[in-house]
TrEMBL record:
Its biological purpose: Responsible for synthesis of pseudouridine from uracil-55 in the psi GC loop of transfer RNAs.
Organism name: Bacillus suaedaesalsae
Stated name of the protein: tRNA pseudouridine synthase B
Catalytic reaction(s) noted: uridine(55) in tRNA = pseudouridine(55) in tRNA
Active-site residue numbers: 38
EC number per UniProt: 5.4.99.25
Gene3D superfamilies: Pseudouridine synthase
Length: 305
């Protein structure tokens, strides 16, 4: 059993909980997720099974799309609705649509973001949420992320009440904390805020309408059709440039051999090598010390696979 299971993650489970549950259903230990979703967040969670666990990092690195809701009026410890209230300030004026759109425009592109204390980012070998649970504040690393698109999904022209909420869609790079983005939106409008809802609608090329529930996974295992809903490894790597090789070269690739550099690598960091049947064999990169050669970054298929 090899491939990617597109799970519609339910509310209330961690990504690790989902992996554990899939392991039990499909009866295999070789299962891993491709990036953490908070327990309260639902939506697309690609889960790698079997040989597909080798490519988890490449699925994790793809852009993501979310639909969420910002609520102005108070902020929380976790930056979402599940945390304790930190600051309150009633929305005492009308906020115009143009103001929100202006903030969205300023936040589109490459921006700096500091991950929340309640997050899985590691500082000095410990997850930030471990410090947060003990009430310890530590210095957090600021990093650049990319907001490709930020769209207001609410068609109102004016927003005004004690707690103003509005929906948005964001397509962003790996490592973006949408909770923190919601807080930043509020700050730029002059109010404490938090993320009150969130669903991941796409992870790379994988979309929500392709996802299955735990119930469907169980039914597919029961009737022996589980393989029909697994996404092939090759599709998950479509974002990489690729080339097809002959059987002689394929034999070398399966053994992890260094090869003459393919011209495609001149303008790219990675290259996917496919055999004559379209099977993904390996991912190659430029050799750091031997000019004109390339070496395997990841061998995906060998004679033992």
């Amino acid at each position: 059993m090899n491939g990617i299971l597109l799970l519609h993650k339910p509310k209330g489970l961690t990504s690790h909980d989902c992996v554990f549950k899939v392991r039990k259903i499909v009866k295999t230990k070789k299962v891993g997720h491709t990036g953490t979703l908070d327990p309260d967040v639902t939506g697309v969670l690609p889960i790698c099974i079997g040989r597909a666990t080798k490519i988890a990092e490449y699925v994790t690195g793809s852009d993501k799309t979310y639909e969420g809701e910002v609520t102005l009026g108070y902020s929380t410890t976790t930056e979402d609705f599940s945390g304790e209230i930190v600051e309150e300030k009633p929305v005492d004026r009308i906020i115009k649509r143009e103001e929100i759109l202006s903030v969205f425009q300023k936040l589109t592109g490459t921006i700096s973001q500091t991950p929340p204390m309640y997050s899985a980012v590691k500082v000095n070998g410990k997850r930030l949420y471990e410090y947060a649970r003990k009430g310890i504040e530590v210095e957090r690393p600021t990093r650049n992320i990319v907001i490709h698109e930020l769209t207001l999904l609410d068609d109102r022209e004016e927003f005004g009440s004690d707690n103003v909420s509005f929906s948005f869609r964001v397509t962003c790079s790996k490592g973006t904390y949408v909770r923190t983005l919601a807080v930043t939106i509020g700050e730029m409008l002059g109010f404490p805020s938090h993320m009150s809802k969130l669903i991941r609608t796409a992870s790379g090329s994988f979309t929500l309408n392709e996802c299955v529930t735990f119930e469907e996974v169980e039914n597919r295992m029961a009737d022996g059709t589980i393989s029909d809903i697994l996404i092939p490894i090759e599709r998950a790597l479509l974002h990489l440039p690729n080339t097809t090789i002959d059987d002689t070269v394929a034999g070398k690739v399966k053994n992890g051999s260094v090869l003459e550099m393919d011209p495609l690598l001149e303008n790219h960091d990675l290259l996917l090598l496919l055999d004559q049947q379209g099977l993904a064999l390996a991912i190659y990169e430029k050799h750091q010390t031997k000019q004109g050669l390339m070496k395997p970054t990841k061998v995906l298929y060998n004679e033992m696979s």
